[in-house]
Structure formats: C-alpha cells, structure tokens
Amino acid sequence: MNLLIDNNDGLGQQDYTPWLDTDHLPKIGRKLNQPATMVTALLSADANFRPPVSGARIILQHADGSTLFAGYLVTPPEQQYLGYGQLPAWRYTLSAVDDSCLLDHNPLPARAPFASRTAGDALKTLAGDVLPGALDLSGVQDVGPIHQFVVVPQKPWSWHAEELSTMTRAAWRVHDGKLDFQPLGQQSFTLSEQDSSFDPTALTLLEPDSLLNDVTVIGELEPFAYVRDYFLGTGALLDFYLSRTPFDNAAATVLEDDYSEAQLAPALWSVTDPGQKVSLAGGRLQISGGPATIAFVEQLELAGALMLQHGKFVFTAASSGTVGGIYNGAPANANCIAGFAISPSGGNCSIQALVEGSATGPVITTTPGHQYSLATQLVSSEACRLRQTYFSSSHPAGNGRGGDSIPAAVRIVLTVHDVDPANPGTLAAPATVLYDGVLAASPGFATYALVNATSLFAGISWTRLQRIVDAEIRSMIPGGQFRTRLAGAFADGGECYITSSGTLSFYAPYPPQPNEQVVVTYRSSARAMARVQDAVSIARHAQGSDRGRRTYVRRIKLPPAASSVDCENAACSLLDDSVQPAWLGQYSVPGDLLPVADVFPGNAVQVSAPSRGANFTAIVREVEVQVLSLAADRSQYGITFANEAAEPLAFTFDLMTLPAPAASYDTGTPSSSPYVDPLAAARIYDTGTPSSSLYIPPLTAAQVTVVIATEISVDAGVAPPSDGGIEVRRSDGGWGPSDSGNLAGRFTTQTFTLPRLQRVQGYYLRQYDGSSPARYSRYSVLLHVDYPL
Fold first, then answer.
1. Please, what CATH class does the domain formed by 251-468 belong to?
2. Contact 559, 392 (CB under 8 A)
3. Is 2-98 CATH 2.30.300.10?
C-alpha cells in the first residue's frame, strides 16, 4: 500500500509511504451521501522530507494500483513536536476529504429551479456548473424523476447532492476523479453463516421496535376548493373583496434578465446562433438576422398562473420568426402552443398571435422607433402538473409511488403594449389583446424560447417570467361577451391586480362599468395531509386492550408534498417498510475476509443468520477502513447497516402537532382532505386500493347563471350521475346522507335554483354517485355572490 502526495509544486506525485506513522496508519471514513474522509500521520526527522501543504492532492493506493482513497488536504497539517535527534522530529497529522471538496469549493450560479428533470441530469448539471470537465460523469445514472428542485447558491454542491439522493432513494460518491450516482442497493453482497469466511463474532445485530402502522403525513399548503366569486360593477367601485385568499397569492420570479452582462448567462439560456447574430450591448439583447434560437434552459410548468413578459422590443427592420414561443417539444412553429409570429410588412413588421401552430386574430403593424412590450398570461386549471414520486425498498427507482401527470386546461392571453417614446400618454394606454382563449388540453411542461427567428432585427431590453396570483379575472358588460381583465403593473398595460390579502383592485382608468359582471376564478388553500393505516398490521398486533395501532405524525420536508395525494403516496411508501421487522447491524473484519473487494455506503447487504432468526436485506450506512499493514496491504473494515424499517432513507421529516385528528383510512385508500370527513372516516378499504377510485370529479364548470334579489340560479356544468346527484351545503363539511345543519339541498338536475337570503351568499357543491356508501367529489366548488340586493 502506498501513499502519494502532490504538493502542487511542479514535482508531481511523491511517495510518502516511508514517512507514514505506523501508530497512526490511514483511517478512512465513508458515510452515506457525505464526502469521504481520511486521517493519517507522517513522521519526519529527515532533511529530504517536504511537509505536505493545504490543498495537496493525496492518494492511498493498494499494491495492485487500485485506489482506496483520493482527495485533498483541506487544512494545513497539524504539527506535533516529538523531540530532537540529529534533526528535530515532528508528527504531521493529515486530514483529507475526497474529490467532492473541489465541487464544494466553487459557488453555484443562480439558476431557475430544475423542472421535469431526472435527478442524475440535475446532479451532472450542478457538477458542470462548479467544476466543468473535471470529473468523469459516466457513473451518473438518471435514477428517478424530480418535479421541481430549487438550487440554493448559498449551499454547497454536496448539500444539493444529498437532497437529490434523498428525494430519489439514491447514493452519490466521488471517488478517484469519478462521480457516481445510482439507486440504493444496486451493488450488493451477502453475509451468510454458511460462508466459510464468515466470522460470527464480528457480526452484531439489533432488532429495535420501530413498528409504525398508522401514519399521518403533513405537507405544504395545497389548492383546495374551486372558487368563483361574482361581483357587480358600479362605474366607480375599484376594490372587490374575494371570499377566500387565493392559493398562490404572491408573485415569484422564475427568470429575470436585464441583459447587462457581457454575454447571455448559460445558467438561464441555451443559444443556437451559427451566424453569430446575437449579442449584448447597451443593456439590450441585440439580434441582427438569423437563424437564431434563444431558449430558457429549464422546462416551463404550465400550472397555476404565469406572466411571461418577453421584453420591450424595438424592431429595426423587416423580420421573420417567432418570439415568446411556448412549445410542446423543440422550438418550431408546428409545436408552438402560443407565441407571437413576426413577419415582414414592407420595411416594418407585423405581429400576430401564433396559437397551436397557426397564426390567428388581429395583426399589429410596427412603427419605427416605437417600443412593443409583448406579454403572455397563462392561467391553468391546476396548480401542479405532476405528482411527486416517493420510493421505498419495495418501490425503488423505476417503480415509485406517484409521478403521474395531471391534465389541465390553460387560458392563454397574448397582449402587445405599444409605447411611443415621443408620447408619454401611450404608457397609460391599455395593451392590445391579440388572443384570449382556452386550450382544453395542454402538456404539463413546455419549452420556452424567447426567440426562434429566421431573420430578426430587434433590440430587447429585458425579459421576466413570474408566477403571479393564481386567479382568472373575467368581466362582461350588459349585453356583451366575457373578456379577460389583464392583471399586472399599470405601466405594462395591466388593468387590475390582486393583493396578498385577497382584494381585487382595478386601476382608476379601468373601473368595471355599471352592472358589469366580474367573475374571479381561483382555488382556496388548506394544509395538505393524509392519514394512512395498515389494517393487516394493526390486526396482527392487537392484543387485549392494545388496539395494535402504532402512530406517527410528521411534516414531510423531502420529497416535498404539494398535495394531499402526495401525502398519501408518501405515507404509503413509509408504511411499505415501517410495518416490517426492523434490523440494525455491524460487521467488523479484515478486508480479506469480506465477500467483496470493497464496500461503500449505499451497497445492499443480504444478511442470512438463521441461528439469530435474521434473514433480511439492509443498506450500508457507514464504512470505516483502518489500514492494518502497509506491507501486507491489509485493512480492517467496520460496516454499519440498517434496513428502512429501522432508519428510512427516502424521506426527511419534521415533528408537527395537529390541531385536530385527520380522518382514518386503510393503506392505499387514505383521506386526502385536511378536515375530518365523517363519511369517509367510517370507511375501511382493502390495502392497495388507489385513492383515486374513492372520488368522482369535482364540478369545476359549475357557475352562477342568474342572480336576483331572492334567488341564485346555478348550472353545475355537467349532468349529475344518473344514480346520484349534486349536494349543496352552506359550509364545506358534513358531506354525506346526514343534514349536519348546513345542508342546502340535493339535486338530480344539472340546473337548479338556490335561495338568496342576503347580499353576500355562498354555496358549496359536490356531486355524488349511487355507490354504497356514495362516492363524492374530492374537492368542493364554492359559488360566492356579492351583488347589491
């Protein structure tokens, strides 16, 4: 075994093996999803000895040349004076960290959250950000999908690697210049009493009581009831108070670029520019021909509400191409969901909406010197388009729970705000709507390309993508048609905005006219949670007055749970392991008695010890390698392992106290409601029944059709189930056959009339079928009217 050190002094690797302190031979520590470390010591009373320096490259090799450890000294050696012979004698204690320390030394750039990527792709991207081309990345596997992953520049690379590993039940390590990332347990070995090299005295086993069979998982705030608020304009009233606070009621910037740098940021943009027609100058993105494509590096989730301010364009010559394009796939007009088609018009340009691959609607012809702010507003019927994926030992990578896509309709509004710098009054002019329509079906994620041009001549001063208040604002004057009211800044052509406290405010020039109907559509919010029970385990452990229930209530941090369905999947994944016998163990033997050449955290170990009643598979959590003999090339291995019944690996939880109990469900059929639902709580379902089978669709198309002083007419949007109906209540609870004091009625027709008892009146609707017991919608629809009597 040899110790090689390169002090970065131009001499290359030097053999320090002769100076190794035999009382402090190298000790290597490996922990799951953490950098490996090595501690050793050198003795020096030799004039030829060069003390290692901080940052020196250090390698410990086997006699056959294979590497046991490779890394860098992260601190100066600790010196200890030992006495004086012919020369002073010193001990130098060395502390080294594996090659991942290079990744941690360099800061991560600010970038938008990763969206719809694999964990392996995200990890490679981050490695390329901080240390491009320095590591062999061939060992990085995709492992599993990630819905959204936020990059925190203040955190080191290894912190992000650990988060990605937890989210996908994976293991990472950097060893000898190579980054590996793979599912847990992909490599395995066996410790068996039947093996001739097995040492029974070296094996320690513990079977802790870690049983959990009644799990409540609490997630983030989720969109809950579907709300439609109805107001009536007076011609002077500017503020209208929403009945609920919208689920997503604060703006968050996804992308912002003012083009003040020397070049486009690679963490934001992917640029195809074979003719070098793209440049930055004077705080503007300049494009002087084509072909050229400038695309956002991340996928855009078509969920919630998005405001895409593509920028302020000044066209300098006749042009052709697409700007502000959202594509289902690669940037090409045939794939364009929505964008702005730019075409020549004499020496100027024409701007027209491009929707689902076809130019449509009115055309604006540009005027030289004018500034054109192009914007796209998207409002999706769903706040999320992909379920989180959760893993366990029985649902590993490739077979996780969840991960299904969520279909949604998307309203698209394309606007152009024409500003003449010579006429300040044009700043306050309303934006022109080129398109306002709904796509009944849309992909969950799309490519955003600021420019996809054949030949574009323009300067662009800024670009901003924001998630805005998740609400759709529509109005209709008497005898007219509904139109979308533009939300946003007044200077950007906006007509109104929603405050964080839930007030819809119109700017003074755009008050709703007398008797103009205003409809605001959004989702309310509630805490996502689910309680899941394993009825088989509970029955097995019930004895006498012990009901057999072992409860666990936690708030999940990783993977995040954005909805109660996510909480259900997380709870079921936790129960996959927590109802199994828990095992912890250690095995400590010389390396030549191991059944494999080397062991790393994340390896699976199959333990077969019938004499101890042990037959299980666990994951190695920690390995300690203590060199015993340099000449004999021997080391002592201490291996610590546990199965996921003892120590879960695919979750991070926080303790949280619930103000009230959640409803009870058997495994696979848990409640998704954060409120106690007496109807559902009485049901116990077979393990494995998908929760989606317990509910029928919500009445998302329900709307108020007529309001008079004493009545509200409602159209549910769909005919009720033939053997069921539509239940209406004055508050969101008590759903089922009982009255519960808030029942307003049950109806078997699509249209019906409800009493109006006061100026402000609200009703909750759910449909139900003829099952026994009846299945209801998962979420309510709230129709809220605030009209003068």
1. mainly beta
2. no
3. yes
Q: How many residues can be counted in the chain? A: 789
Query: Angle, to 10 degrees, between the axis of helix 157-168 and the axis of helix 119-130?
Result: 170
Whether the CB-CB separation of 417 and 493 falls below 8 Å is answered with yes
Alpha helices in 412-534 (DSSP H): none
Contact 668, 522 (CB under 8 A): no
Taking the C-alpha atoms of residue 68 and residue 125, their distance in angstroms, rounded to an integer, is 27
Give residue 318's pLDDT. Answer: 97
Per-residue pLDDT at 660: 54
Cα(321)–Cα(334) distance, integer angstroms: 13
Amino acid at 688: G
CATH of domain 188-210+582-642: 2.40.30
Query: Residue 620 in contact with residue 32, Cβ under 8 Å?
Result: yes
Give the separation between CA 549 and CA 353, rounded to whole angstroms. Answer: 60
Q: Domain spanning 697-786 has what CATH number?
A: 2.60.40
What span, in angstroms and rounded, lies between the C-alpha atoms of 14 and 10?
11
Q: What is the DSSP letter of 95?
A: E
3-state SS, one letter per residue, for 377-391: EEEECCCCCECCEEC
What's the CA gap between 699 and 714, in Å, rounded? Answer: 12
C-alpha–C-alpha distance, residues 8 and 384, integer Å:
51
What is the spatial distance between Cα 68 and Cα 74, in angstroms, rounded to a whole number? 18
| Domain spans in the chain, listed from the N-terminal domain onward | 2-98, 102-183, 188-210+582-642, 251-468, 697-786
Kindly provide the b/e burial profile for residues 168-206, where b requires at least 16 CB atoms within 10 angstroms of the residue's own CB: bbbbbbbbeebbbbbbbbbeebebbeeeeebeeebbebe
Whether the bond into 595 is cis, omega within 30 of 0 = no
Q: Where are any strands of DSSP class E within 74-135?
A: 78-84, 88-98, 114-118
Helix (H) or strand (E) holding 658: none
Nearest to 623 by CA among 206, 37, 24: 37
| Residue 256: CB atoms within 10 Å | 13
Beta strands (DSSP E) in 332-444 are 336-345, 348-355, 358-365, 371-380, 389-390, 401-402, 410-419, 432-439
pLDDT of residue 445: 97
- 23 forms bridges with which residues in the sheet? none
Using the structure block, give the residue that is written with the tokens 């005295």.
201
Q: How many CB atoms lie within 10 A of CB 261?
A: 10
pTM of the complete model: 0.91
pLDDT of residue 676: 36
- Contact assessment for residue 594 and residue 6, using Cβ atoms and an 8 Å cutoff: no
| Gap between the Cα atoms of 148 and 651, Å rounded | 16
Give the CA distances from residue 510 to residues 197, 236, 591, in Å, rounded to whole numbers and listed in that order.
Answer: 84, 9, 79
What does the angle CA 487 – CA 490 – CA 495 come to, to the nearest 5 degrees?
40
Helices (H), 599-705: 678-681
Cβ proximity of 118 and 165 under 8 Å: no
3-state secondary structure at position 692: helix
Predicted pLDDT at 577: 96
Residue with tokens 């988060």: 163
Q: Identify the bridge partners of residue 334 per DSSP, sorted by sequence position.
A: none
CATH code linked to domain 102-183: 3.55.50.10
Mean pLDDT by 10 residues, the chain (789 residues): 94 94 96 98 87 96 93 94 81 96 92 94 96 95 94 96 97 96 97 95 96 92 95 96 88 91 93 96 94 97 95 96 97 97 96 97 96 96 93 94 94 95 87 94 96 96 92 95 90 87 94 97 92 90 92 94 92 94 97 94 97 96 97 95 97 76 45 36 42 85 96 97 96 89 96 96 97 92 96
| All residues at 6 or more sequence positions from 480 whose CB lies less than 8 Å from its CB, including other chains | none
Kindly state the DSSP code that residue 25 receives in the 8-state scheme. -
Q: How far is CA 395 from the centre of its chain?
A: 20
CA distance 270 to 111: 13
